[in-house]
Amino acid sequence: MPSGFRWTTFDLTSSLSRDWQQEIAATAADADFREFPRTPILSREGRDVQRIYRGRVHAAEVRQNLPWLYGLYRGRFLDLAQEVSDEPVMAARDDRYGIVLNVQRGTEMRFECHIDSNPLTGLLFCTDHLAGAGGELVFAHDPDATDVEAIEQDRSVIRPHAGHLIVFDGRRHPHYARPLVSASDVRIVAVMNFYTESYPESTRPRDLNLHRFGRVSGQGRASEPDHGQLGSACS
Ligand SMILES: [Fe+2]
Q: What's 227's DSSP letter?
């Protein structure tokens, strides 16, 4: 039997503020756009891929510029994530990776093939993309898929709808975001890490924090530069 992939979608289009997309787009315009090195441990890119061009609004900027979104992550969105789990769900205590924005602009960017280290991920799609416009989120059914081509052979495809929050367990299904088709298009998604009682935040790989932030602990983070080395698509 093939290993399926399942996710839960919450339609929040009627409950977000009128200007929520504009506010997020304004912050995303100043994202950190560059080639990010592949993620240790979690990457499922082909061996020849060392860097992936993309954009990120780091967690500190999200918290500072979009405090209402940071609040939803720890409030309403956490409550919704709880609805799909049989055990207690928690937001990240470490503010370096709790919620970030991933941004793709034009046709050259995409998001790295990877698996998640956290047991539950929430994605709030912030932009709409018509069928055939690219930007789809693609999940492999095969847990051993190790590059884009392998993922695309047997997959589930989710087309972003602005205002839809999806919640899923991406630990065993490699996934990535396809590039956009139009040079003028922009894709923005808010990415949230959630943890559970049986798979708490302490399970996050040490090497991931070392890679991203240059240190394991989040203590003293107020003055700590975020090296922003990477972070998988789901942070
Ligand atoms: Fe992910």
A: -
* CATH number of the structural domain spanning residue 57: 2.60.120.620
Q: What is the pLDDT of residues 42-88, one digit of tens each?
A: 999 999 999 999 999 999 999 999 999 999 999 999 999 999 999 99
H or E stretch at 105? strand 99-105
Q: Are strands 32-37 and 51-57 parallel, antiparallel or unpaired?
A: antiparallel
Residues 148, 110: Cα–Cα separation, whole Å: 11
Residue 180 to residue 174: CA distance in whole angstroms: 20
Q: Which domain holds residue 185?
A: 7-217
- For the stretch 215-229, pLDDT in tens is 665 543 333 323 333
Tell me, yes or no, whether 225 lies in a domain.
no
Task: Give the CA distances from residue 120 to residues 124, 192, 233, in Å, rounded to whole numbers and listed in that order.
Answer: 13, 9, 13
pTM: 0.89
Cα of 223 vs centre of ligand 1, distance in Å, is 28
User: CA-to-CA distance for 10 and 54, rounded, in angstroms?
Assistant: 26
Output the CA 136–ligand 1 centroid distance in Å. 13
Q: How far is the CA of 44 from the centre of ligand 1 (A)?
A: 11
Distance 8 CA to ligand 1 centre (A): 15
CB burial string 123-138: b at 16+ within 10 A, e below: bbbbbebeeebbbbbb
